[in-house]
């Protein structure tokens, strides 16, 4: 009999196959604008953008953040990368009997602070308790809803001046040859900070998680105009995001290794641990696809925000096979494979 | 240092105090129509009804249902009791490494079937895996959104012919003296079925869980007109629901013990186990408050549906102290206390 393995929840190809076969296949198809089968960051139904995420990060509190901050920022970001404005959050908290209430207070305080920071209120919730031993301390599932705004309409109007735009939301299938790919900042920080802290490697003194809500930064990008798609590269990192885009938009993406923002500490930690920084999850970054003529303008707008100060153009979209080609720093080319899963378990 | 106890998630007074002090207090206040602080079945923001529930029921599959059916029916019911029409569900599934995939398939199939049955699609989701030993098999958190419908407008218009109605949704604070209380069917079935099955008492041969989506039955009630509030008596059962209404609507409620629908098997099981069927959770029942002149009409409409065939008028709302008085079958009166929690743990 087949059993659940860690990679079934690790965001890569193995998870995609598992979800398609054992979860999504059992559910009836809905007439949503962006349906479940699209497996995008959020669904859209009757112009309401709707998303949910379960959070199992271990440990609960880590350098740069905690499960409460991730759970608010994560759903706010999932709504925002569709081009929508998040308006409310719902949270389901499941606690282990015997957990210190002081820890609950710390995590809930952090959720409240993050909610205040991004201006998206937590409007409803539910709390359950499982007996001691039935759960490792705490999990939090958060859902969020968002609405269409004039910002997105104007943004897509700008993009439409240059080429036909397929979807009216920033979906994974909205890229076309010629589009430019922007990363909003350094990649791999979250996964490396968490792994290092957990395993005691010592890199955590310099590398902190990047977890943060990105709705304000994204609004600045949309104001610049011409963005056609966005995704937050969480589980499976940049490699997963770009490969999903290639297969859903039926394009090839070419990226320049030298232009990918990476902290020196992340590079050396990944070298030492034998993991790829491009396959590790991030919690405060967004990858953007925009029409070529607006790329510099969008980049500038993003760079003016605190969350986007290290943003960079990292590649372009081509006609070709559904794959990601990376031009290496030594002048070669290699395929950036879709990861089977995230190399670091329970990072979100 | 204070620790989490099972009753912090058991739906009664201890939970209410814990939530107010350690969860809700940390979150910023929102300008929602029905805000977090109202602690109602759902929140309402910009006319979108929004709810979330975590599901930790043990065992995953039990007589009459399973965690998948509960997770869909539960959120659909939380939207419906506000008087709204549920339009979409989001699900967050968290799995334990090593769990049989066959069980996942069974649960997801049940979610799909329930979603099809009630006509509310699952439009988005998320799956995580925790390592073996970090979670007892599986938890599912589901969120749902709903919209205002003409049905609710018309229903409240009818109620307004007889008296002023405070809220424009079916909130806990909408009752007034004179209103009639209806129970949609037999109480205690879910909790007794689950406890008996789990502990091997043998009652489960006759008592099955009542878990079911109630949106269609509720729509029939609204069509009759005059309903001002509804609540599904889950954790803490009828005793919890009525006491919440008393304190939020500032009224006294008087119920007739003899008119409360209870299965003989539930009565004898509860006698034997020393638990109160009125404090046990239900998953397929609704308690309704409506204006007196429309009570018989609403009752008939509910009784015509399969889920409401055992519905009965069980009491009336009075001016008085914020408490529930029960007229006993032997002619006496006693106060139906708000339960400290549900006597049966992990029933939903």
Question: Could you characterize what this model shows?
Answer:
Chain A is α+β, with helices and mostly antiparallel strands and 348 residues long. The first copy, chain A, has two domains: 6-147, 60s Ribosomal Protein L30, Chain: A (2-Layer Sandwich), CATH 3.30.1330.10; 150-335, PurM-like C-terminal domain (Phosphoribosyl-aminoimidazole Synthetase, Chain A, domain 2). Helices cover 31% and strands 22% of the residues of chain A. Chain A is built from nine helices and 14 strands. In chain A, the strands form three sheets. Chain A has a seven-stranded mixed β-sheet with strand order 9-11-8-12-10-13-14, sandwiched between helices. In chain A, helix 2 runs parallel beside helix 3 (101-118), helix 4 (150-162) crosses helix 6 (215-224) and helix 6 (215-224) packs antiparallel against helix 9 (295-303). The longest helix of chain A has 18 residues, at 101-118. The mean pLDDT of chain A is 96. Chains A and B meet through helix 1, strand 2, strand 5, helix 3 and strand 6 of A and helix 1, strand 2, strand 5, helix 3 and strand 6 of B.
> So, CATH architecture of the largest domain in chain A?
Alpha-Beta Complex
Please report the two chains with the greatest interface, counting residues with C-beta closer than 8 angstroms to the partner's C-beta: A-B, 83 and 83 residues
Overall helicity of chain A: 25-40%
Structurally, the number of domains of chain A stands at 2
Largest sheet of chain A: 7 strands, mixed
What's the average pLDDT of chain A?
A: 96
Key features of this structure:
globular; 5-stranded mixed beta sheet; Phosphoribosyl-aminoimidazole Synthetase, Chain A, domain 2; 2 domains; homodimer; alpha+beta; 7-stranded mixed beta sheet; 14 strands; 348 residues; 60s Ribosomal Protein L30, Chain: A
């Amino acid at each position: 009999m087949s059993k659940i393995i860690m990679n079934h929840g690790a965001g890569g190809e193995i998870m995609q196959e598992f979800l398609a076969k054992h979860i999504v296949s059992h559910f009836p198809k809905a007439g949503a604008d962006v349906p479940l089968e699209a497996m995008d960051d959020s669904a859209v139904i009757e112009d309401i953008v709707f998303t949910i995420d379960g959070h199992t990060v271990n440990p609960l509190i880590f350098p740069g953040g905690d499960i409460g901050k991730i759970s608010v920022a994560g759903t706010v970001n999932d709504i925002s990368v569709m081009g929508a404005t998040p308006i409310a959050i719902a949270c389901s908290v499941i606690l282990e009997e015997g957990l210190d209430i002081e820890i609950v207070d710390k995590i809930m305080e952090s959720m409240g602070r993050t909610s205040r920071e991004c201006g998206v209120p937590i409007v409803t919730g539910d709390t359950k308790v499982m007996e001691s031993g039935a759960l490792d301390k705490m999990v939090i599932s958060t859902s969020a809803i968002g609405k269409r705004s004039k910002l997105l309409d104007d943004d897509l109007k700008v993009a439409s001046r240059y080429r036909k735009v397929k979807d009216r939301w920033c979906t994974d299938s909205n890229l076309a040859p010629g589009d430019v790919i922007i990363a909003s900042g350094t990649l791999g920080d979250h996964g490396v900070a968490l792994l290092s802290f957990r395993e005691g490697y010592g890199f955590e003194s310099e590398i902190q998680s990047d977890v943060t809500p990105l709705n304000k930064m994204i609004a600045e990008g949309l104001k610049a105009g011409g963005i056609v798609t966005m995704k937050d590269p969480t589980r499976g990192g940049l490699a997963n995001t770009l490969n999903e885009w290639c297969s859903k938009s039926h394009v090839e993406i070419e990226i320049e290794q030298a232009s990918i923002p990476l902290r020196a500490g992340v590079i050396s930690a990944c070298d030492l641990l034998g993991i790829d920084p491009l396959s590790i999850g991030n919690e405060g970054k967004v990858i953007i696809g925009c029409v070529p003529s607006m790329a510099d303008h969008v980049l500038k707008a993003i760079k003016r925000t605190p969350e986007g100060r290290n943003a960079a153009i990292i590649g372009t979209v081509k006609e070709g096979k559904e794959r990601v080609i990376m031009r290496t720093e030594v002048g070669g080319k290699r395929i950036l494979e879709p990861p089977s899963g995230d190399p670091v378990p329970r990072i979100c």
